[in-house]
Specification:
single chain; alpha/beta; TIM Barrel; 11 strands; globular
């Protein structure tokens, strides 16, 4: 007999000591936090459920967010000074970037103007409108440079939903997958939620993160509920994030 009353838990109850490796909490340099006050409000919101360790990943996107190591590190210093003024010394925050695979990415890679996550992991994304023409070539060059590509939110690319073979191809090439925790709900739509579950069921997800840009998203994250089965699937993935990226 089907159990229609399976117990649900709030996802945030499992996030204490979680390290968030993809978010947009640095102030004023992309579509995330607009200023230091916004950044600190987000960090305080995360602290309500025990998340105090962050790798901030602002966009590097040609023509839209032309960030570089200097602009990103300047924003990091600004935020760290704000945290000191707030006496929030318990917060750990480092900086990396979310790199759009666009017509300028390979130039940035060649000139080492990228911002890896801890060690030699590189967070990359494609446009939500269409696949990057040079995605396969970029993956090859990332490997040649000695980096491991982490594909941000693969569940959100609708044009890949009917092409599971491409996901399998990317995984065979050593691409690591980072799922957004909001994708466990219908926040991005039912199709994205279904794809997230499918990728999790097939063991394709390596890391999870919030990708939070604003308080609205953070409040939506607080409302996400998961089953016991889903929490069991997520725990080792969270543990892997912690062991790989903890400072």
């Amino acid at each position: 007999m089907f159990d229609f009353f399976k117990k649900k838990y709030f996802l945030v109850d499992f996030l204490e000591d979680f390290i968030d490796i993809h978010n947009h909490i640095l102030p004023g340099i992309d579509d995330g936090a607009k200023n230091v006050d916004d950044s600190i409000a987000l960090i305080k919101g995360f602290g309500e459920f025990g998340v105090t360790d962050f790798i901030a990943t602002p966009h590097i996107m040609n023509s839209y967010y032309p960030n570089n190591p200097k602009t990103i590190n300047d924003a990091l210093i600004l935020l760290k000074n704000g945290l000191l003024q707030q006496k929030m010394k318990h917060v750990s925050i480092r900086a990396a970037a979310e790199h759009m695979i666009d017509d300028n990415f390979e130039t940035l890679l060649e000139h080492e103007e990228i911002m890896p996550l801890g060690g030699n992991y590189l967070l990359v994304e494609m446009s939500f409108l269409q696949a990057s023409i040079n995605f396969e070539q970029a993956l090859k060059k990332i490997r040649q440079k000695g980096y491991f590509a982490i594909f941000a939110h693969p569940e959100r690319y609708l044009y890949l939903h009917s092409n599971l073979h491409l996901h399998k191809s990317y995984k065979k090439q050593g691409v690591l997958y980072q799922m957004n925790l909001l994708s466990l709900s219908k926040y991005y739509g039912k199709e994205v939620q279904q794809m997230a579950s499918r990728l999790l069921d097939q063991g394709m997800i390596d890391f999870v993160a919030t990708d939070v840009h604003n308080l609205r998203q953070l409040n939506s994250l607080k409302e996400v509920q998961v089953s016991t089965k889903m929490s069991d699937i997520l725990k080792p993935i969270m543990d892997k994030s912690h062991s790989t990226f903890i400072g």
